[in-house]
Amino acid sequence: MADQALVATPSPRPPEKPVKDKPGPLEYMRQWPLRVIVGATLLFLYLPLITLMVFSFNDSRRNIVWHGFTFKYYEKAFNNDSLQQAFVNSLTIAFLCTVISVILGALAAVMLWRFRFPGKTVVEGSMALPIVVPEICMGVAMLVFFARVFPWPGGLPWPLNLGAITIAHISFAFPFVATVVRARLASFNRELEEAAKDLGASEWRTFWDVLVPHMQPGLIAGALLAFTLSLDDFVITFFTAGPDTVTFPVKVYSMLRFSVTPEVNAASTILIVVTVILTAIGLQMQNNEPKDKKA
Amino acid sequence: MTDAPVSNAPAAKPAPHVKENAIISFQGVTKRFGKMVAVDNVNLDIREGEFFALLGPSGCGKTTLLRMLAGFETPTEGKVFIDGKDVADLPPNKRPVNMVFQSYAVFPHMKVTDNVAYGLKMDGVDAGEIKKRVEEALELVKLGGLGDRMPDQLSGGQRQRVALARALVKRPRVLLLDEPLSALDAKLRDQMRSELTSLQEKVGITFIMVTHDQDEALAIATRCAVMNRGLLAQVATPADLYEFPNSRFVADFVGSVNMFEGVLERDEPNEAQVRCAELGAPVYLDHGVTGARGSTVWVALRPEKIEMHKRVEGSTAMKMEDAPQGTNVVPGIIRDIVYLGSETNYEIELEGGRRVKTFRSNLTRYDQEDFTWDEPVWLAWHACSPAVLLS
Amino acid sequence: MEQTWKQARAAFAAISVPPLAWLLFFFLIPLAVIWAYTFGENTGPTTIDFTGTFANYARALGPLYLGIFVKSVVVAAITTILCLVVGFPVALAIAFASPKQKAWLLLLIMLPFWTNLLIRTFALIAVLREQGYVNFALEWLWNNASGFMTLIGLQPLGEFEPLTLLYNNFAVVVGLVYVHLPFMVLPLYSALDRMDRSLMEASLDLGAGHLKTIFLVVVPLAAPGIASGILITFIPALGSYLTPDLLGGTDSQMIANVIERQFKRANDWPFGAALSFLLMYLTFIAIAIQALVQRRSDRRA
């Protein structure tokens, strides 16, 4: 066995439990300084939210020291009619805003992706405006618009009284949807469309059979974005809301202005949970999409 | 520019299933994109049953020509006839042709059977018939049993078969293939080449293929059109393209070639002579060239048509004057050797400094040892081997 | 390949009219009205005359309000820098994590981003206030340190004085960083994730250390991503209303709070409109600078 090196010996079996290999040079996530930074950042992001949620169950008004578990603030929140109304309002507005924004955004995306037309740069620029204009500017613009130019009739039955807020929300949400959908369209293989036509499909059939299925993940992502943008918005709503059209964030804001009650904790926790559930649903929907990267 | 074979090319034998009638006819077709001329006054007939290749470098207009057949581009000038009908006003979804796209364009959100059935559904074929024909089509392309797969569960080659089945199931008059093999790896490409040929023979319809790969065109097509900058450079069978190119472009684009510029000195009906400064010797030809005496011509010589013989430095054993009639001989020195297994490529420097390529088949296992670097050799070729080009 | 609108007029009209009409009527017109107001004057409690005056702009650029603009820019800039300093290593770590870790980390970064802004700001109050957890933690450390010092025979540290962490500029910056960090991390991540790994490997192979590789190779290549991260952090930070309103003191108001006051309390709409438009112009300047940086890096690429 002197010239063992020259004989092709079977390599030793790998150990049953693999020894943790050293992190590769570019595996930054496996190096401790970066782990510390990431950990600290996540702590910074989540500590306030988690304490808020935990202390919504705390049986103490001062909600700083743990006094025992209770549901009473949830009960209070649920029995607070105006808070409940605000929550329903928020969800209704978000729903309407999502539906209309997805339609408008998808149309805008297809228009900008598909056509060349005079003034396209101007249109693209204007479509980007609602995304970049500071919320406060848009808020005051909406305030003035609905106060002086296009007064939303008062005293309308629910949900028509939410029209002004919904319109304002759609105005800032649909350009976001358009951006997301257009990004998705950029990866569309035009040969798919040609293939459908080649096989006998009309323009309209091609649109529904090929383009819409391709846009679908973008539409879902856009819908989620529109929904959360609407649900999240405080500033623009603050300027368009009337006394009887209060949304959840506006309600929470006014409650905060008076005092930090544990009720707000409870209501916030509910909203956080709703957000997490929605995000989970959205991610699930996107994961179920067929992977068409290769096609 | 001409369909007629140059010089003494033998008349092409059409494949047995090729019929006489032209199923596709381009008449004076020009396509401009802004100022760019993509297709320049193309006149071309493609006969029913042919496997026709449009061959050319990228940007030569071959894809535009194909897309005009499918209906995705409209000619700026001229007319396109499919089966004798002017198709100017026919949108893509109404044409009796189908296409296999370069990216295959298999619908990613539909399973294989739905992809193949799509075109039949568009035609309003009833469900039972669709099912039957889809199954047949999948059998035809050897995808039986994979009907329930989604496209992302298929390999590249399988997706191409889906695209083929999807187009063929509609029983088009003409199948268009846009760079059908370019996305496949080398092994698969060879396999698909022969499958495409046998598939075409089996279904018996006209196939028109666009490719930039001359090997592919020569291997598959019954007839090829070589395009250059929007113009048809030559339309001929693969063998004629290779052996009887009509221009320097075709000679250079199809296969490997040694090109020498020269002056036509003598031009008789069955012999001619070209003086080439780079060769240091005249080139004898055993056929006439229809060119004016004294005009500039180009001699194209394929590397495999040059034979190499040992030479002793300074020896006159194989003097030019002694060379047998009909043989051309020049001296040179081997400067580069590339061993490729089945053959060896040599680069030989002539006395004037010009380098010439030649291939030598390795007939025995020791052939590659016959010649070595810097060895003096004679290069010889038969008088019928060079092609004389006027443009 | 785009097609010209003339090729399919009907389809183009059907597709383009709804979004364009909406954009015009419910966005551009309201903005135009506000813009017109910037040249108006209050002539009564609810009447405004469009006199074409520049007095509103003149007042807005006076020392008092200019000071608030400068302060807003400084606060937004500090916020952006802090977000970049924290966000870059985080984005780097995520971009080079294993695929599974990557998905989770991204989700964890995204989740607060989806959570209501008001709630996040509110949550921060409980952490920062004098009776909040930061002060609790500090007090505990303090007392333990104190006890330890007594133990080894030194003077105890004395009574713990809670730090004032809320209702001041510090709170505003912390709040803005807290709210905007995901805005920074995501574009940085996508820029780093797209980057060709072999370039970094080449740098390491040629003898550069990790820090040098990051500063000489990664940062220049990720410049467009960094620039867009800076932009989409800076713009909302500059115009933020809620964070200074809830976390700031009387001296930490930003420009958005002043604008709000003009519309809701002072009822001086023309002046508020002029302030809004100045804020908008600042935003556009920031975008223009980013576009220039982008173009320069595009040209190099």
Give a verbal description of the structure.
The complex is a heterotrimer of chains A (295), B (391) and C (301). With 295 residues, chain A is an all-alpha fold. Chain A contains eleven helices and one strand, in the order αααβαααααααα. Chain A folds into two domains: 28-72, no CATH class; 74-287, Orthogonal Bundle (MetI-like fold), CATH 1.10.3720. In chain A, α6 crosses α8 (203-232) and α8 (203-232) packs antiparallel against α11 (262-287). Mean pLDDT of chain A is 83; it is low at 1-11 and 290-295. Chain B has a six-stranded mixed beta sheet with strand order 6-7-8-3-9-10, sandwiched between helices. Chain B has a five-stranded antiparallel beta sheet with strand order 13-12-11-14-20. In chain B, strands 15-19-16-17-18 form a five-stranded antiparallel beta sheet, with no helix packed on it. The longest helix of chain B is centred in the middle third of the chain and has 18 residues, at 186-203. A two-stranded antiparallel sheet of chain C has the order 2-3. The longest helix of chain C has 33 residues, at 63-95. At the A-C interface, α1, α3, β1, α4 and α5 of A face β1, α1, α3, α4 and α5 of C.
Chain-wise SSE layout:
The complex is a heterotrimer of chains A (295), B (391) and C (301).
Chain A: H1 32-55, H2 72-79, H3 81-114, E1 115-116, H4 120-132, H5 135-149, H6 163-186, H7 190-198, H8 203-232, H9 235-240, H10 248-258, H11 262-287
Chain B: E1 22-33, E2 36-47, E3 51-55, H1 62-70, E4 77-82, E5 85-86, E6 97-100, H2 112-122, H3 127-140, H4 156-168, E7 174-178, H5 186-203, E8 206-211, H6 214-220, E9 223-228, E10 231-236, H7 238-243, H8 248-253, E11 258-268, E12 271-276, E13 281-285, E14 296-301, E15 307-310, E16 327-339, E17 343-350, E18 355-361, E19 376-382, E20 387-389
Parallel strand pairs in B: 3-8, 3-9, 6-7, 7-8
Antiparallel strand pairs in B: 1-2, 1-4, 4-5, 9-10, 11-12, 11-14, 12-13, 14-20, 15-19, 16-17, 16-19, 17-18
Helix pairs in contact in B: 2-3, 2-4, 3-4
Chain C: E1 3-4, H1 9-37, E2 40-42, E3 48-50, H2 55-60, H3 63-95, H4 99-114, H5 117-128, H6 133-151, H7 169-194, H8 197-205, H9 210-221, H10 223-238, H11 242-247, H12 255-264, H13 269-300
